[in-house]
Amino acid sequence: GEDLAAFSDSELDDRAYVRMMSSLTVQDALHLMWYIGMGFMALLFLAENLRFALKLRRTRVSLEGAESRYPVYLCDDIPSPCLFGLCKPKIYVTSAAAKDPETLRYVIAHEETHARHLDPLWSLLRSLCLVIWWFDPLVWLAAHFSRIDCELACDEGVLRRLGEEKRIPYGETLLKLIPVGRAGNPVLTATTMTAGKRQMKDRIRRIAEHRKPFLIALGAALILAAIVCACTFTGAKEEP
After folding, report:
1. How far apart are CA 54 and CA 47, in angstroms?
2. Could you give the count of Cα atoms lying within 13 Å of 210 in the half-sphere of its Cβ?
3. pLDDT under 70 in the chain at which residues?
4. Backbone dihedral region of 183: left (phi > 0), alpha (psi from -120 to 50 degrees) or beta?
5. Would you report the helix, strand and coil content of the chain in percent, each value rounded to 5?
């Protein structure tokens, strides 16, 4: 009798599971996939930034004599100088940037401009958009170009601060310090950037020719993509 009861309960559970699965709509399945993707991207965002923060803390050395309103650290375990931290940002430079006083001055001016532009906060916003709308290639593309636009705006801010006569030396500093390769980690909130050859060429040309970047345009594209994505899973209202 107990075996029969157990069998009956198991059969009922299987039938309930089948009925539940059959009642799921395509929209329900897409919502489930969306939530799973968001959870994965959120974990990736936290893991990448925590790993980067621990690496910096483990390898950094305070750089004495650096003139900046922010703490400056020497760290060779990074691809390029960067600004990292939301509440208390810190500047991290490589040995190549620190060995020459003029180069160090340009690097610190660059990262301080990132801080004045609140670029770590914008990096966080880009990452949140990627977490929420991870499935939309337009959001990834907009985040990529938004990151580039932040660097172009930062270059112009630095040169307004240093003076027009520093355009060529500043451009030469970028050529020496920014590695050319694949795009940087899109979910990392640090301002470090690895530029492609075409991007680097365009950036240097803008500096030399005093060409201002197309500000806000890419930000508007990001907002537009977010609005489109927000409507993606909105189902039509059922008729009574």
Report:
1. 10
2. 7
3. 1-24, 181-183, 193-195, 210-240
4. beta
5. 65, 5, 30
DSSP one-letter code for 182: S
* C-alpha torsion sign, points 100, 156, 183, 53: positive
Q: In whole angstroms, what is the distance from residue 167 CA to residue 159 CA?
A: 7
Distances (CA, A) of 147 to 140, 186, 217: 11, 9, 12
In angstroms, the CA 192 to CA 151 distance is: 10
CA distances from 203 to 107, 114, 154, 213, 235 (A): 16, 16, 11, 9, 43
- The full length of the chain comes to 240
The 90-93 sheet, strands edge to edge: 61-62, 72-74, 90-93, 82-84
Beta-strand runs (E) in 150-235: none
Q: Which tokens in the block code for residue 116?
A: 């004045």
Are 80 and 192 contacting, i.e. CB atoms less than 8 angstroms apart? Answer: yes
The angle subtended at Cα 182 by Cα 176 and Cα 185, nearest 5°, is: 100
150-205 tens-digit pLDDT? 988 999 999 999 888 888 899 888 888 877 766 678 899 998 766 677 777 888 88
Q: What is the pTM of this model?
A: 0.76
Element (H, E) at 192: none
Q: Distance (Å, rounded) from C-alpha 140 to C-alpha 65?
A: 40
